[in-house]
Design a protein that fits this description.
Elements lengths: L13 E5 L2 E5 L1 H11 L5 H28 L4 E6 L2 E6 L2 E3 L2 E3 L5 H28 L3 E7 L3 E7 L6 H20 L7 H13 L4 H23 L2 H19 L1
Parallel strand pairs: 2-3
Antiparallel strand pairs: 1-2, 3-4, 5-6, 7-8
Helix pairs in contact: 1-2, 2-3, 2-4, 3-4, 3-5, 5-6, 6-7
The protein binds zinc ion.
The site of zinc ion has 5 residues, from α2.
Length: 246
């Protein structure tokens, strides 16, 4: 089951170019976005949430892509059923094709820049709302993740609902991707930290962290009633477990 590799190109793909990056959106992406958005009963809200999910994940991938570009590595973006992928382009060196090897520090910077882009956007929106006379209060997601609640001086307008959802999805998506579960961004960071202290067994330890953390998130999601997330993390934990045994 190749759930988390880029899906094959189909004629239903949406293709466009943004800031010089080629973007491909698989039809499966819309299906999963609809699955998450369909918790709402209001058709307008469902549509808004799908757009918010699309923009948030695109922003996340652009964070990776721009950081790679700053390291002189161009990339392509794919949005699919597993979220988003930023795929570095191969480039030719005379007769051979190679990818630019990144240093561990660069690799970590690329990994955190996806969530970083989302968090920066949240910060920016918070400042804008505050500046325009809205109120900003701080709530804590799961009791410890700071979560700004923005009350826009817009009443219940569509823009207000849109921005509120955009802030929520950006925080959620950033935190989610920083979990140390292979192949999420957090796992890349974890691997470089563990390999720094233990070059021989660092990778193996990273996979064990991934197995345990993935299983915990799967279990929590099941309790929480989020079946797709439970399935996703259950599968990732299983994949890491298979890799650690090899
Ligand atoms: Zn990412």
């Amino acid at each position: 089951m190749q759930l988390f590799q880029a899906p094959p190109i189909t004629r239903f793909d949406l293709n466009f170019s943004l800031f010089g990056f080629q973007v491909r959106v698989s039809p499966f992406f819309w299906l999963i976005a609809l699955l998450f958005a369909s918790g709402s009963r209001n058709l307008l809200h469902i549509l808004l949430l799908i757009i918010v999910i699309f923009l948030s994940i695109l922003l996340h991938e652009l964070g990776h892509a721009f950081t790679l570009r700053s390291m002189e590595q161009e990339s392509q973006i794919v949005l699919y059923q597993g979220g988003g992928l930023t795929i570095p382009e191969e480039r030719s060196w005379g007769y051979s094709v190679a990818r630019v090897g990144l240093s561990p520090a660069q690799d970590v910077l690329v990994a955190v820049s996806g969530a970083g882009a989302g968090f920066l956007m949240v910060l920016l929106l918070t400042i804008i709302v505050y500046f325009f006379g809205g109120t900003v209060s701080m709530a804590f997601l799961f009791g410890f993740i700071p979560f700004p609640q923005l009350f826009f001086p817009l009443g219940g307008s569509i823009l207000s609902i849109f921005l509120g959802a955009f802030v929520s999805v950006n925080i959620f998506w950033g935190v989610f991707n920083l979990l140390p579960v292979n192949p999420l961004d957090g796992s890349t960071v974890m691997r470089h930290i563990l390999q720094h202290f233990d070059p021989v067994n660092g990778y193996r330890k990273t996979l064990w962290v991934s197995v345990i953390c993935g299983a915990l998130v799967a279990f929590a999601s099941l309790v929480w009633g989020q079946l797709y997330i439970a399935f996703l993390f259950g599968y990732l934990a299983f994949q890491s477990f298979q890799a650690v045994r090899r």
